[in-house]
């Protein structure tokens, strides 16, 4: 295994619901190598999304440490974590989560608003990102004018545009038909192989997982078998 | 500025709702602009009352007339530099709706007393020569289509002529203007000569409505006023001398506390607006919780999200307030034709924008706070 870009040690996560404490992740250790394309699989409630949220800096562990790109993100304040996410993580969601009133270019530009890049540079980078996902001609279109696959490509372009260390994808093909899903997965594969992007993807779909370089199966908050492809 | 497209697009997410809310705010600020213009206009009329001018009227009522003989006694009071007098005429032009102030004044001293009025030299000379001459405010002349040289009839409601008729005629000899906006508003009157009035009226000869005094040292105005009143103490016509500003305020109070009425109306309007706009902002943020969560996910800090929602609220309120105040300013000249002297002072714009900012903060803060406290994981899982 190469250099670990993500490293979790003794991670525990529980939620309190009323008087009940629900254990979601139990004493979890995990390393993800730079340049890996990891598919996290498992049944609903197995803790996949919780793990993804911890890696993406959206949530904090109840115990244990989470290091991403050499930084202990479990020790960062809320403001520091927001800055860290802007620098290091690109998110892709199942339902695309684009801003409906903004066109594709403006949607892709959002992470760049947090940088000091001038408008012309932002636009140039936005166009490059749209070019990579094959939507250079659709920059002026609003999400409602795009198909599901195109909307997800815009979401991927948004995730890519700030050149993050890690792409975190939560069921990126869950809302798409097989053909479109395969196109998106091919795109992610290209980003991993040609652009060296490290990708962590949660999926229910074994076919989607086949596009990854590694698979991890989770069950009841624990990591089961890892099957390198 | 780079966030503007984001804020602007959020504002127009539900166009009909934003338009209706905006219209409500526009109407509220239109009302605000008009009523505040009246209120500021009134307070300005107090402010322009010269600090060095005193006003002497009957002790018990403003309507009490005073002997003309007081003139020389007041003039000889130490500290008094200039004395003039005026009498309320209270007539109408053609129709009872055409009511405006008409004053019979001492033409030799009145314009010197009110040096904020502008009257050209030819008009002054003609007024000195023509006993039935009158000076009229520019706005009045424009409203009624008068010009210099016209003879105009005014129907008296208090002062009939010796022959029992109520129709008085005056020759317009010049136009009155003011050195600034406030003086212009004050100049919307008809001034005619007291000697003509005193000779031609049926009764009241030798009496004036009130005296005006200019003091040589404004710091001594209080003691000069007391000295004037002392001279007439225990006489059948006792006087009460005060600063012109104090008199004007007392006079307006007699009409009712207009400021209070205006503030009450505006208070009710803005209180209602608070709920309406607040509800719109709350709804708008509630609908966008997943979008706001996405912004936070990609790195917008809690404070940035708070600022974005507050900016949206500010944009909504300020645009609508500008439109409302703009319409009020646009309509003002039309209203001024009916109510001479009415105009939109810059203070009303400043006050309006201040109120818009405050409104934006009050209605924007609760949803902005909610957006700021948003938990990303919960907000995204609720999707």
From TrEMBL, chain A:
Transmembrane domains' residue ranges: none
Q: Which UniProt keywords are listed?
A: ATP-binding, Nucleotide-binding, Transport
Domain ABC transporter as annotated: residue spans: 6-229
Report the InterPro entries cross-referenced here. Answer: AAA+_ATPase, ABC_transporter-like_ATP-bd, ABC_transporter-like_CS, ABC_transpr_LolD-like, MacB-like_ATP-bd, P-loop_NTPase
Single GO cellular component term = plasma membrane
Which terms does the record give in the GO molecular function aspect?
Answer: ATP binding; ATP hydrolysis activity; transmembrane transporter activity
Q: Which family does it belong to?
A: Belongs to the ABC transporter superfamily. Macrolide exporter (TC 3.A.1.122) family.
Q: What is this protein called?
A: ABC transporter ATP-binding protein
Q: What species is this protein from?
A: Solimonas fluminis
UniProtKB/TrEMBL annotation, chain B:
Query: MacB-like periplasmic core domain: from which residue to which, for each copy?
Result: 19-230
Quote the subcellular location field of this record: Cell membrane
- The ABC3 transporter permease C-terminal domain is annotated at 265-375
**What is a single cellular component term in the Gene Ontology annotation?**
plasma membrane
- Keyword annotations from UniProtKB, A to Z: Cell membrane, Membrane, Transmembrane, Transmembrane helix
Looking at the UniProt entry, the stretches that span the membrane are 260-278, 305-328, 348-369
Membrane association type: Multi-pass membrane protein
What InterPro entries does its record include?
ABC-4/HrtB_transporter, ABC3_permease_C, MacB_PCD
Q: Which Pfam families match?
A: FtsX, MacB_PCD
Q: What is this protein called?
A: Uncharacterized protein
Q: Which species does this protein come from?
A: Solimonas fluminis
Q: What is the lineage of its organism?
A: Bacteria, Pseudomonadati, Pseudomonadota, Gammaproteobacteria, Nevskiales
């Amino acid at each position: 295994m190469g250099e670990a870009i993500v490293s979790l040690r003794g991670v525990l996560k529980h939620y309190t619901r009323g008087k009940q404490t629900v254990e979601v992740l139990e004493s979890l250790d995990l390393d993800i190598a730079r340049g890996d394309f990891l598919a996290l699989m498992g049944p609903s409630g197995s803790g996949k999304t919780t793990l993804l949220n911890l890696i993406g800096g959206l949530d904090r562990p109840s115990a244990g440490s989470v290091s991403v790109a050499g930084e202990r993100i479990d020790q960062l304040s809320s403001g520091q974590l927001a800055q860290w996410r802007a620098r290091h993580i690109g998110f892709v969601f199942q339902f695309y989560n684009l801003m409906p009133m903004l066109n594709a270019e403006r949607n892709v530009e959002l992470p760049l608003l947090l940088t000091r890049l001038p408008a012309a540079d932002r636009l140039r980078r936005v166009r490059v990102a749209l070019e990579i996902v094959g939507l250079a001609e659709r920059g002026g279109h609003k999400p409602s004018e795009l198909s599901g696959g195109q909307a997800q490509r815009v979401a991927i372009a948004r995730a890519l545009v700030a050149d993050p260390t890690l792409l975190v994808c939560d069921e990126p093909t869950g809302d798409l038909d097989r053909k479109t899903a395969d196109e998106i997965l091919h795109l992610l594969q290209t980003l991993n192989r040609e652009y060296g992007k490290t990708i962590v993807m949660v999926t229910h779909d074994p076919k989607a997982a086949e596009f990854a370089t590694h698979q991890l199966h989770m069950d009841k908050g624990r990591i089961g078998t890892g099957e390198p492809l | 500025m780079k966030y503007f497209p984001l804020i602007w697009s959020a504002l127009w997410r539900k166009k009909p709702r934003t338009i209706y809310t905006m219209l409500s705010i526009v109407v509220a600020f239109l009302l605000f602009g008009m009523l505040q213009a009246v209120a500021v206009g009134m307070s300005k009329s107090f402010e322009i009352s010269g600090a060095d001018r005193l006003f002497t009227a009957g002790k018990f009522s403003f309507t009490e007339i005073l002997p003309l003989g007081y003139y020389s006694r007041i003039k000889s009071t130490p500290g008094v530099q200039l004395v003039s007098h005026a009498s309320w005429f209270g007539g109408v032009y053609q129709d009872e709706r055409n009511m405006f102030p008409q004053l019979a004044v001492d033409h030799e001293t009145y314009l010197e007393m009110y040096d904020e009025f502008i009257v050209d030299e030819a008009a002054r000379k003609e007024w000195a020569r023509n006993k039935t001459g009158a000076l009229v405010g520019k706005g009045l002349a424009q409203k009624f289509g008068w010009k210099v040289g016209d003879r105009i009839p005014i129907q008296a409601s208090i002062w009939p002529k010796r022959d029992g008729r109520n129709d008085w005629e005056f020759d317009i000899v010049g136009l009155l203007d003011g050195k600034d906006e406030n003086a212009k508003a004050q100049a919307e009157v008809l001034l005619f000569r007291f000697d003509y009035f005193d000779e031609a009226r049926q009764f009241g000869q030798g009496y004036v409505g009130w005296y005006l005094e200019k003091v040589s040292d404004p710091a001594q105005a209080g003691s000069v006023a007391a000295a004037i009143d002392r001279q007439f103490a225990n006489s059948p016509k006792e006087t009460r001398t005060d600063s012109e500003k104090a008199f004007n305020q007392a006079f307006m109070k007699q009409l009712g506390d207009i400021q209070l009425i205006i503030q009450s109306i505006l208070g009710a309007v803005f209180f209602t607006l608070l709920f309406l706009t607040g509800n719109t902002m709350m709804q708008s943020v509630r609908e966008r919780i997943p979008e706001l969560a996405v912004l936070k996910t990609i790195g917008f800090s809690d404070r940035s999200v708070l600022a974005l929602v507050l900016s949206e609220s500010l944009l909504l309120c300020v645009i609508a307030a500008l439109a409302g105040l703009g319409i009020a300013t646009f309509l003002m000249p039309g209203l001024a034709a009916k109510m001479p002297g009415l105009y939109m002072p810059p203070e009303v714009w400043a006050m309006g924008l201040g109120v818009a900012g405050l409104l934006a903060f009050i209605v924007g803060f609760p949803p902005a706070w909610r957006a700021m406290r948003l938990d990303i994981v919960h907000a995204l899982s609720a999707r």
